[in-house]
Amino acid sequence: MPDEAFDVAVIGGGSAGYVGAIRGAQLGLKVAVIEKEKVGGTCLHRGCIPTKSFLHSSELAHQIHSAGALGLKTDGLQIDWPAVLKRKEAVVNQLWRGVEFLLKKNKVTVFKGEGTIESEHKVVVKGSGEAINARNLVVATGSRPKSLAGLTMDGDRVINSDHAVNLEQMPKSIVIVGAGAVGTEFACVYNGYGADVTLVEFLPTLLPLEDAEVGQQLAKVLTKRGIKVLTGAQLQPDTLKRANGKMTVAVKSGEQTQTIEGERLLVAVGREGITDGFGLEKLDIQLEKGYIKTDEHYRTGHPNVYAAGDVIGNFLLAHVAYYEGEHIMEQIAGKNPKPLDYNRVPRATYSYPQVASLGLSEKQARDQGLKVKVGKFPLAGNAKSVILGETEGFVKIISDEESGDLLGVFILGPNATELIAETALAKLLESTPWEIGASIAPHPTVSESVKEAALAVDGVAIHI
Q: Which CATH number is correct for 158-269, 1.10.10.10, 3.90.1150.10, 3.40.50.10780, 3.50.50.60?
């Protein structure tokens, strides 16, 4: 390799790629990033950030509609969709420029274009023909939305989440297939803006990867708000028909079939790793269920080739990708980082009410043969939740009966995605529910409900 070779070349400037690159530069490594679009990746441009911008204004609209209960009279509310889109773009562009600045500040070399692997030490940029030589290669190509067998997404009437963040017109009605985090969040977005929403989920509960009680309770809240929730229901793609600006499609639940309609159909049935189109097949790298297989230090099994972020599966979350990208650079720099315990990774769904969790659900813990103790505290007993008028949620904490270890936490309610950080820190520090319960929370705050749920593990919660 020539003397000017980089220490690390990263294919993909998304969450794993750009954060890893900055960490590598901090550690004294010479790092190159090859990105075919804008740095920041899916999260910044098509995922986390634009959707949360939509959700913020949508939830505010919902609160204004409900303001009468707080003694506030409103004369009606109009949704200015072009202004909503403009605000979303302003948020995304501000953060994108910030990422560009940080890469430049840390002296990371960014190559704009599509990178193609020539060997484990060489990447060529399509178009420009620039060749990047590097001692180590990191694949951080991300993921893309999955389709549903039998459905063709045209980007107009049948759409995925990438299309949804750029719709020029807000649909008056929409059918959403898949009630994971993406589908549930968009259901809240459109409902808050006044659209008729039907949410279809094949599995028995909303947010099927969470504790079952969370999905069951969230379904009740969303149904009360006017969202039509169909769980244990399977869309029949071959029945899709278009007429008069709307689409109709059959949904089967058990032995019963019903026809539902909407202006648009949003397919939110998951994502798949991007492992094709950039020469990965030239390396002896193993795939597992469509994702790159790695060890606990994100090594692919091929010397000097690593992978991180959505392309390796695990949790498809930006903050997980951040960690994985940083870990790789620390590994390359000889810092011997400890492998991540994914049971301490917080998960967040920005529906309203919000959902946040970490670790094992009650069922998962019992299925592993663990004896568990469960503490649950309803927000109806929390003063701040009563003040906010948001009392339909709860905090649930699962612990190991024998060791007292914290196994899982599930929060449904206001500020859940902020509150979960407290328990993530507790998990890192190997705290027990007793220690969480012994800490002091300010009053009145929703955070008191976490303390109360921890006390409830031993049956000593105060306000229930």
A: 3.50.50.60
Its CATH class, for the domain covering 6-144+272-332, is alpha beta
What angle do helix axes 81-105 and 15-26 make, rounded to 10 degrees? 30
pLDDT over 50 (residue 3)? no
**CA pair distance 84, 194, nearest whole angstrom:** 14
Give all strands of the β-sheet with 256-262 in edge-to-edge order.
Answer: 234-243, 246-253, 256-262
Can you tell me the distance from the alpha carbon of 11 to that of 274, in angstroms, rounded to the nearest whole number? 11
Mean pLDDT, range 166-189, rounded to an integer: 96
Residue 385 carries which side chain, given as an amino acid letter? Answer: S
Active site residues: 443
444-458 tens-digit pLDDT = 999 999 999 999 999
Residue in 381, 391, 397, 327 with CA at minimum distance from that of residue 353: 391
- What is the rounded distance in angstroms from the CA atom of residue 34 to the CA atom of residue 292? 19
Q: Rounded to whole angstroms, how far apart are CA atoms 328 and 50?
A: 28
Q: What span, in angstroms and rounded, lies between the C-alpha atoms of 203 and 188? A: 19
Tell me the C-alpha distance between 212 and 85, whole Å.
Answer: 35
Q: 198: which strand partners?
A: 175, 228
Q: Report which secondary-structure segment, H or E, holds 394.
A: strand 394-400
Q: Residues 201, 205, 209, 211: what is their CA dihedral angle, to the nearest 10 degrees? A: 170
195: CB partners within 8 A, 6+ apart: 170, 171, 172, 173, 174
Q: Where are the domains of the chain?
A: 6-144+272-332, 158-269, 343-456
The strand ranges marked E within 268-353 are 271-273, 287-288, 291-292, 305-307, 347-349
Instruction: Give the pair of three-digit tokens for residue 292.
Output: 């790159």
pTM over 0.90: yes
**CATH topology agreement for domains 158-269 and 343-456:** no
SS3 225: coil
Q: Which residues pair with 112 in a beta bridge?
A: 35
Tokens of 227: 């969202």
Q: Which amino acid is at 303?
A: P
The encoded tokens of residue 199 equal: 């949410």
Structure tokens at 104: 């430049």
378-434 pLDDT, tens digit per residue, is 999 999 999 999 999 999 999 999 999 999 999 999 999 999 999 999 999 999 999
CATH of domain 343-456: 3.30.390.30
Q: What is 228-266 written as a DSSP string?
A: EEEES-EEEEEEEEEETTEEEEEEEETTEEEEEEESEEE
6: enclosing H helix or E strand: strand 6-11
